[in-house]
Amino acid sequence: MTVMNPLYLYDDEIARLRAAVRRIRFDRFNMMLNQFHVNGKRALLHACAHPAFAALRWDIDRAALSAGIVPHAAPNPHVTLSSNANGLRIPSMRTSIQWPVDEVSLVWSQRTQETGQRQYVVLERYTANASDWQPSPLDFSF
Fold this sequence. Notes:
Elements: E1 2-4, H1 11-22, E2 29-39, E3 42-47, H2 51-66, E4 78-82, E5 92-93, E6 97-101, E7 103-111, E8 118-127, E9 140-141
Parallel strand pairs: 1-7
Antiparallel strand pairs: 2-3, 2-6, 3-4, 5-9, 7-8
Helix pairs in contact: 1-2
């Protein structure tokens, strides 16, 4: 979950948000990363839709609203591989990658004045319920 412009949030709002998200329970699950994409300077692996992710996102949005905070409309789930991917060729993916989701982080996101780049600070981590999962090996070709 990303909180945009947290400088505009009061300490008690952040405390309410942390408490609300702590009450969320979710099981570990695997997102299927199935599409490599270069968007300007960013290289991303996009995930296909997953009902467990949708349910978790719903619970987080409700927790934010219960704390009096409007949730940030996050992009589709993805993994950022690089923020400096200019000229990178898009590799072919031989197989989808199972990406384990076993924790959620409350992240403070803001642009730095010096460079205008986004800076992300993890404020708190929330761990999934215990369950067994196996990560899959990465398999790329360029």
